[in-house]
Amino acid sequence: MKNISKKIIIGLLAGIVSGLFSTGGGMIVVPAFIYLLNMEDKKARGTSIFCILPMVITSGIFYYRSNYIDWNISILCAIGGMIGGYIGAKILKKIPVQYLKIVFTIFLIYASYKMLFK
Amino acid sequence: MIEILIGIISGIISGTGMGGGTILIFLLVYVLGIDQHIAQATNLIFFIPTSIIAIIINLKNKNIALQSAIFISIFGILGAIIGANISIQINVNILRKCFGIFLAIIAIHEIYTIVKWYKKQKLRNNKKNEYIK
Question: Does the structure's ipTM exceed the value 0.95?
């Protein structure tokens, strides 16, 4: 297996971020796979989900033990998430990703401002 | 029922690969007014069912580099143990501020990729024009 040290660093870093914020592992792993491991885009995305699930389950165990899981909210959101995922898969083919990216970025700036200076 | 709606919005965004999780957490904290820790825990549960379906589909389509994935996952689990324990120990307000900084970093990265794409597009158009001349 090639690039062992790179893979160790990618895994550790994504795991730490994933555990800290419960999100964002994919935003580290996908570009890292493409630029550091020279994976093609599709394979990078597919592999990233496989890698992130164990991190999420691990974090989940610790959050659960600290009583941070509200099952009522979680299950409702998960149901919505599956519906949204289905809708997304249908409509996203019709909208150019670049425009979505711009909207998403504006949202991120707004959200980070709100989080920092509430 | 607001919870389902927040889930739907985040689910749609997840499909773009831009991180529906960040939106889910933000909306839970801001619209529902719940604690940052609980919002993050909700995102963990939110992620599991859709990702399992995605993994099955990707395995069938052979879009997963399995050997690398398993190797990276081992270190991912180690990292997650570290990260989750730090997160649990941190005060809610500090965690929320850290999350804000994290969102800002993602925003900067997104701006960078948009600019890069735009430049590439411009270059391509210029080349086209030269060809016409």
Answer: no
pTM over 0.90: no
pLDDT tens for chain B, 133 residues long, are 899 999 999 988 887 667 788 999 999 999 999 999 999 999 999 999 888 988 998 899 898 999 999 999 999 999 999 999 999 999 999 999 999 999 999 899 889 988 988 898 888 888 777 776 6
Gap between the Cα atoms of A33 and A91, Å rounded: 27
Q: Where are the domains of chain A?
A: 1-69, 70-118
To 10 degrees, the CA torsion angle through B80, B14, B62, B66?
A: -10
Q: Looking at chain B from residue 40 to 59, which residues have their Cβ under 8 Å from any Cβ of chain A?
A: 40-55, 58
Interface test with B, best of A1, A6, A55 (most B CBs within 10 A): A55
Residue A96 to chain B, least CA–CA distance (Å): 10
Closest of A60, A57, A30, A40 to residue B14, by C-alpha = A30
